[in-house]
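Quick question: what would this complex look like in 3D?
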Amino acid sequence: MTSAATKPAVTPVQAKRSSPPPRRRKGNRAHLLAVWVFLLPAAVLALYFKFIPMVEGIRLSLFKVQPFLGDVFVGFDNYVSVLTDARFMDALGHTVILGVTQTMGALVVGFVLALLLEGQAKSLWFLRTAIFLPVVTALAVVGEIWRILYFPTADGPLNTILSWVGLGPLQFLNGTDTALWSIAVVGIWSGAPYNMVIILAGLAGIDRALYESAGVDGATVWQRLRYITLPALRPAIVIVLTLAAIRSLRSFTEVYVLTGGGPAGSTEVWMTRMYSLGFQRNDIGVASAAAVLLLVVTLLLTVGTQLVARRKAER
Amino acid sequence: MSHTTTRTSPRTKRPSSSSRFDSALGWSPGFGTNMVLRIVLCVLVFCIFALPFAAIISGAFDRNSSPTEITLLPKTFTLANFEAASQQGLWGYLLNSLVIAGGGLLLQMTVSVFAAYSLSRKKFRGQAILLLLVLLTMMLPEEVIAIPLSLVLGDLPLLGISLRGSVLAVILPVGIWGFSIFIMSEFMKEIPAEIEEAARLDGVGEFRMLFTIILPLCKPALGVIGIFGFMMVWDQYLLPLIAANDPSDYTLTVALSVLRNDTTVGPGVLLAGAVMAMIPSLLVYLFLQRSMIRGITAGATKG
């Protein structure tokens, strides 16, 4: 960062005595000053709240952190603890299951919503606005809404609806085999309308003449979807999928609000395990190691998908 | 509620005969089984995605001792839940939330506009590296640095002050958001250099240049970073949780779990809190809906 500031500043000093540069010199210095004045707030905030914590997190992950006794360097011991901890491995499994079901579910539902609600009519616009509500509502509020819908007695709101179609009362968030799936449903509910908007934008970009000529050729609706709509949407879908999959690795709020990782650890994900280790049991070293692992995986996946996407774009 | 659904169900009457090709599924304009099916599906979808909100609002204005008693319309209208919630500190939580959302969003937008102006309208050495750093903060999941961030907030390096328990502990960290800087500078890049050069010949300084020449041309981008920034700040959960000294510092969204755990008053108090937490996001969404859609689709194509 400093090299950017010093290098151009040298040139005006050397050119001090010649007559034409002064105006340029003044302009140059003012220009650089402006650059840094405008960048300063962002630089200070990023330094304090992004980069220092990141470096500090990496440092802590290599230490056994003891508040009053002083930190002891332990090398990669904390990483070994994370990777051999059965509860972290369970949490990894839950994170992946939750990520895959939520991502795929939200994509499929979003696609169906987009197909259903595509059109110019005012009523469709109203419907799309209403359906988008789950996305704009804060995740914590969504969680509280669903805790009430999922009320596990036979006369709970969702169980009542299930009983109309003859399905028996479910435990939802209270059952060890249903809790994870119940969280996934909440994720799909609040994520699908977002995907709908992206897919609708993709649908709007499809040339209507293609549909028309397919109609002339006697293609069925299914064939039209399969051979015109889906291929046209592929770029949008790939982006939705990768972004959502990567984001799902660090899902915290919905799990924390809905179950807090329970019952019996059946919904514990990477982030909730990290949170309880770091903030409730004060095992900061191990929790930091878990954070660094998550960071590395996230960065690798993000950079990897960006590279793949760029290579595809070049082709 | 059923009134609204039937009234707003799709009327696909369109004059052109080729309108059958207006949508991917080929919804036909005429009245027939096709249309009935579509109406039924639309009602179903509306029920799934919007009716829970109706139940929540109704429950907030009704006496319920248990979630099983919640109905779509209040049986008896009462404000008792809000009174009980205000005794539990609802307004204090709401005030925390509003101060943080207002201050955080203002700071975030200012910081983003300033940084974007420098990154997109200026040329200087190290620019590419800075842009890379911005992208890096975009990829850096905030949750991952939660633990060291809580330590930093408790004892700011060099300054040695603790922000914990103050609204600044949330406002300052949300002030820097790579997404917002990125969107803003991508947009500013598109403004032709001639406009800036003409103004510079008239002796316009940097701040006037930004505020009177560049910014008025960036209104669409300001809308996008405004609504996305608001949602980002309002949705913060882990940060206010770790930044608080005691529960009275919580934002409304975090405090919902406090309201929930109070068993003497039933779910009504929680629902009153949930409704209060929904209103600001609802208002912002209704006013900036267009920006929201624009932002989502721009994000999708840029990745």
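Answer marked as accepted. Chain B has 15 helices and no strands.
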